[in-house]
Write a structure and sequence with these properties.
Keywords: ATP-binding, Nucleotide-binding, Transport. Pfam families: ABC_tran, TOBE_2. InterPro entries: AAA+_ATPase (IPR003593), ABC_SmlMolc_Importer (IPR050093), ABC_transporter-like_ATP-bd (IPR003439), ABC_transporter-like_CS (IPR017871), Mo/tungstate-bd_C_term_dom (IPR008995), P-loop_NTPase (IPR027417), Transp-assoc_OB_typ2 (IPR013611). Strands 6-7-8-3-9-10 form a 6-stranded mixed beta sheet, sandwiched between helices. It has a 5-stranded antiparallel beta sheet with strand order 13-17-14-15-16. A 4-stranded antiparallel beta sheet has the order 2-1-4-5, with helices on one face. The longest helix has 18 residues, at 170-187. Helix content is 28%, strand content 34%. Helix 2 (96-106) packs across helix 3 (111-124), helix 2 runs parallel beside helix 4 and helix 3 (111-124) packs across helix 4 (140-152). The protein is built from 9 helices and 18 strands. The two termini are 47 Å apart. The chain binds adenosine-5'-diphosphate (ADP). Residues 17, 20, 22, 40, 42-48 line the site of adenosine-5'-diphosphate.
C-alpha cells in the first residue's frame, strides 16, 4: 500500500462532556507499526479517546500529534487516521465494492480509479469474489471484512477500531482476531483497538494501555502488564491474579504461581473452599484470615498427586519473584 507508520502522540488529552470528565489529561506515545489495545471497563473513556484521535469528537484540552504534526483540529479525512466502524454501519443499498469505494467518491476520485482501489482492498481482505453483493447477502464475518476494507482504502497511517469484534459469535471473533493481527503486520501501520475484553487484548496487542476512571492506569507490552500489574485494579481486570493483603501492603500473585502445602507450612494458613476440575488444570480456592480468598491454578498432575478437598486446612505458598507489590 505504500503507507508507512507514524508516531502518534497524545499530549494532555482531555475530554469533558458538561460536568463529566471522560478523559483526564492523558499522555501516551504510540510507536509506529504497533498493535495497541485500549483496555478497560465500560465508561472508562476508551471510545472518547479513540473518537478524539479520529477527529469524530473534539478535544477539550491537549493535543493529538501524528508524525510530528498537531492534527487536533483537522477534520477526520485530513488526519491520516481512519476508523473502522461496526459492520452494521455499511450502506445497505450499495454493493460491497461501492461501500469500500465510498470515501474515495466523497473525495472526488473518478469511478474507474475508485473501483480499482476498492478491488485491491477487497483482495487484501480476501473478498474479491463478493464485490457485487449487497451487505445483507454477506455473513457477519464478511461484513466485518468489508468494514475493514472500507476503512483501509484511505491509506491511513493509524487504523482505529472500536470494539470491532463484539458483534461476532465467539468462533468468528477468534478467527477475525487473527485476521486483524495478520493484516496489521502486513500493512506495517498502527492499529489502535478498543476492547473491554482482557483475553482479546492479550491475544492481539503488542502494547496494552489499561484505562480506568478517565486515566491510563498502566501501559506496556502485553506480557509486562500481565506479569507485573502495578495496581490492584490492573491485576483484577486482567484476571489470573490474586490480590493478597500482607502486613507490608497488597501484592499480586498469579493464580498459576500459588502452591498448596500441608497445614502449618507455607506463607499463610488457609482452608479450601472449592475445587473445580478444568481439564488441564484444577482450580482450587482457599479462604485465608480476613475473608480473603486465594485461587491456585494447579496443573492436573500436581493436584492429583495429592488431592485436597473443601474444608481441608492447608498452607499457601509462592516464590518470592512471583509476588508483585501493588500501588495503593
Ligand atoms: P468507554 O468507551 O470506556 O465505555 P466512553 O468514552 O464511551 O467510555 O465514556 C466515558 C464517559 O463519558 C462515560 O461516563 C460516558 O457516560 C461519558 N460520555 C461518553 N459519551 C458522551 C456524550 N456524547 N455525552 C455525554 N457523556 C458522554
Amino acid at each position: 500500500m505504500g503507507a508507512t507508520g507514524k508516531d502518534l502522540e497524545l499530549v494532555n488529552v482531555t475530554k469533558r462532556y458538561g460536568e463529566t470528565v471522560a478523559v483526564d489529561a492523558i499522555n501516551h506515545h504510540f510507536a509506529p507499526g504497533t498493535y495497541a489495545c485500549l483496555l478497560g471497563p465500560s465508561g472508562c473513556g476508551k471510545s472518547s479517546t479513540l473518537r478524539m484521535i479520529a477527529g469524530h469528537e473534539t478535544v477539550s484540552d491537549g493535543s493529538i500529534v501524528l508524525g510530528g504534526t498537531d492534527v487536533s483540529h483537522l477534520p477526520p479525512a485530513k488526519r491520516g487516521t481512519a476508523m473502522m466502524f461496526q459492520s452494521y454501519a455499511l450502506f445497505p443499498h450499495l454493493s460491497v465494492a461501492e461501500n469500500v469505494a465510498f470515501s474515495l467518491k466523497m473525495k472526488g476520485v473518478d469511478r474507474p480509479d475508485r473501483l480499482k482501489r476498492a478491488g485491491e482492498m477487497l483482495e487484501l481482505v480476501d473478498l474479491s469474489r463478493l464485490a457485487d453483493r449487497f451487505p445483507d447477502q454477506l455473513s457477519g464475518g464478511q461484513q466485518q471484512r468489508v468494514a475493514l476494507a472500507r476503512a483501509l482504502i484511505t491509506r491511513p497511517q493509524v487504523l482505529l477500531l472500536d470494539e470491532p469484534l463484539s458483534a461476532l459469535d465467539p468462533f468468528l471473533r477468534i478467527r477475525m482476531r487473527s485476521e486483524l493481527k495478520k493484516l496489521q503486520r502486513e500493512l506495517g501501520i498502527s492499529f489502535i483497538h478498543v476492547t473491554h475484553g482482557q483475553d482479546e487484548a492479550l491475544a492481539l496487542a503488542d502494547e496494552i494501555v489499561v484505562m480506568n476512571n478517565a486515566v491510563i492506569e498502566q501501559a506496556g507490552s502485553a506480557r509486562d502488564v500481565f506479569n507485573a500489574p502495578r495496581t490492584a485494579f490492573v491485576a483484577r481486570f486482567l484476571g489470573g491474579h490474586n490480590v493478597i493483603a500482607l502486613p507490608e501492603g497488597k501484592v499480586a500473585v498469579r493464580s498459576d504461581a500459588v502452591r498448596m502445602t500441608d497445614e502449618g507450612a507455607g506463607r499463610m494458613p488457609a482452608q479450601i473452599t472449592a475445587v473445580e476440575y478444568q481439564g488441564t488444570h484444577v482450580n482450587v480456592t482457599a479462604a485465608v484470615a480476613g475473608e480473603q480468598e486465594v485461587t491456585a491454578l494447579l496443573p492436573d498432575a500436581l493436584y492429583f498427586a495429592q488431592p485436597r478437598h473443601p474444608g481441608e486446612p492447608v498452607g499457601l505458598t509462592w516464590e518470592n519473584d512471583q509476588q508483585h507489590p501493588l500501588q495503593a
